[in-house]
Amino acid sequence: MHNITRVALVGGTHGNELSGIYLLKKWEKTSQFTRWPQLELTQTIANPRACEHSVRYMETDLNREFALEDLQNDRLVGYEQLLAKKLNQQFGPRGRSPVELMIDLHNTTSNMGACLMLLRKDAFNIGMAAYVKDRMPEAVIYFQDNLPEERNRFLISVAQQGVTVEVGPQPNSVLQQETLELMETMTGHILDYVVLYNRGELASLPGEFEAFQYTEDLVLPTDEQGQRLAMVSKRLERRDFHPVEPGEVIMETFDGVPICWEGDYTAYPLFINEAAYHRSHSAMSMSQRIVLRCADYF
Amino acid sequence: MHNITRVALVGGTHGNELSGIYLLKKWEKTSQFTRWPQLELTQTIANPRACEHSVRYMETDLNREFALEDLQNDRLVGYEQLLAKKLNQQFGPRGRSPVELMIDLHNTTSNMGACLMLLRKDAFNIGMAAYVKDRMPEAVIYFQDNLPEERNRFLISVAQQGVTVEVGPQPNSVLQQETLELMETMTGHILDYVVLYNRGELASLPGEFEAFQYTEDLVLPTDEQGQRLAMVSKRLERRDFHPVEPGEVIMETFDGVPICWEGDYTAYPLFINEAAYHRSHSAMSMSQRIVLRCADYF
Question: In terms of domains, do A180 and A254 share one?
């Protein structure tokens, strides 16, 4: 277990998610970056051109461009593909990065509250989740450490450790004060935790905490022309991380036929009706509720 | 007072406002267009290319391209400028249109509920407002008949009469069942009213009703580089059409300084934090509450 000193704080990976962009501006203006003198904290806007146009991306989703083979593929010269290579040079290279932690700041149009998204269940991540959940009980802890490696093409994969702060609901290209404050609070707790972690002061963590574990993605049915045949049921509206039992209605066709949850487990949906997944007709992701004991990881 | 027979129902004027686009699809699929056999009802997607890309517009806002002098200016050949000329040919020409009523279906990211936006206070519009408000008490009636003529560059200005159905809150590129149902209900009432109006059966309307009248627009303060210095206060979040008294906090700078409402009247804000007005740093529009008596207009 080595110290986490170099921490990169990133906003604007998606240019229409304004909380991260404005949190960095706000912390710059109010000198908040000096609150953690023990850390080498840097701040970066990942996709300034997408921010300028207030769009998610110019050509392709930057946050899907960090697969190792893509970073090494010289024929990939799209705008975000080039930007990924530049960011990999700046923060990486992936696999040998000097940056010990990257915190990537995102918004969602779904009602996910303040969600801490984690890619690993190791002592550092488990401790962070326990600490954040303890200081901020309304936070949602979400593990996607079971994603297949080929789907981990996220910007944070460049650094040694990476976490995503995902706050919503907030429409794209909108800045809401409450959502900004949720992000600010969560990010502050993460940085406080890193200082505690470096000091080895993990005894103060709670014994166990609630979290959610990714299981699968659900898409809306489409016809042969790729046109949607159904929409997410209003029963699920704004109910991210609320339980859905097998057999419950989750979608409805435009002519009024209900579509039920066919899984054999109590699911906790998230990214319900997320705008960015409009093209792929994604309806929601599913997760299961889990309880994690810190003692199992230290 | 002549009959309103030719009615054009338009969705997709903004390509990322999904309720109108999907309402037309739904009505097509469920043969709802035949519910009003007395009317010659047509349906159109105004900006199919913007819909395909799920963006508000390709180059410029189509719903600001219908000024008479712009429609007649052959040098304006941007994508939406050309599209406006084609729509003016299809539905107009503006000033001599055979289309007696155009209903334009929009979404807003603001919490405006189901809002009927009207450009005139004549018997036809007053009657429509009274009828809709009576059948759908949660509807908000909003008059912007005091907009200067040069700002009426809307698509609906092409037809003899035009109304906008503006439903929210819904993020761009998202389809929510509840929002779609609000739009469906309001549009149905409008068409029912047109049939009633043609029959001269206006005696059944309520004597008076509440509405809101546009007064002015408020923008966020910016620095010399055009960067925002403040955000809308969270006190106003989701509180479209709730009263704001003179002196109340309506914005806050990023370093925590409150900015108060400086008007000398009780204002009812709308389009609070609307995503589409991000570039112009619009914070909200202001309106005043009014009560209208039908008898004054018939």
Answer: no
Residue B17 assigned ligand-binding role:
yes
Task: Give me the total of CB pairs closer than 8 Å, taking one residue from chain A and one from chain B.
Answer: 95
Give me the DSSP letters along chain A. -----EEEEEE-SSTT-HHHHHHHHHHHHTTGGGG-TTSEEEEEES-HHHHHHTSS-SSS-GGG---HHHHT-TT--SHHHHHHHHHHHHH--TTS-S-SEEEEEEE-SS--EEEEEES--SHHHHHHHHHHHHH-TT-EEEE-TTS-GGG---GGGGSSSEEEEEEES--TT---HHHHHHHHHHHHHHHHHHHHHHHT--TTS-SEEEEEEEEEEEE--B-TTS-B-EEE-GGGTT-TTS-B-TT-EEEEETTS-EEE---SS-B--BSTT-GGGTTTTEEEEEEEEEEEEGGGT-
Of B172, B181, B233, the CB nearest to A177: B233
DSSP helix, strand, coil percent of chain B (3-state; round to 5)? 30, 25, 45
Among residues B180, B210, B240, which one ends one of the domains?
A: B210
**Chain B residue with the nearest C-alpha to that of A32:** B255
B54: left (phi over 0), alpha (psi -120 to 50) or beta: left
Mutate to test the interface with B, among A31, A109, A173 (most CBs of B within 10 A): A173
Assess whether the previous peptide bond of B206 is cis (omega < 30° from 0).
no
Looking at the fold, whether A142 and A236 belong to one and the same domain comes out as no
What ipTM was reported for this prediction? 0.90
B87 with B197, same domain: the answer is: yes
**CATH label of the domain that carries residue A256:** 2.20.25.160
Among A169, A195, A210, the domain boundary falls at A210
Per-residue pLDDT of chain A (298 residues; tens, 9 = 90+): 579 999 999 999 999 999 999 999 999 999 999 999 999 999 999 999 999 999 999 999 999 999 999 999 999 999 999 999 999 999 989 999 999 999 999 999 999 999 999 999 999 999 999 999 999 999 999 999 999 888 889 999 999 999 999 999 999 999 999 999 999 999 999 999 999 999 988 878 888 999 999 999 999 999 999 999 999 999 999 999 999 999 999 999 999 999 999 999 999 999 999 999 888 999 999 999 999 999 998 8
User: Which two tokens mark B246?
Assistant: 């003179």
Segments forming the whole domain that contains residue A78: 6-210
Tokens of A209: 């905490």
CB B27 within 8 A of CB B12: no
**What is the number of other CB atoms lying within 10 angstroms of the CB of residue B42?**
15
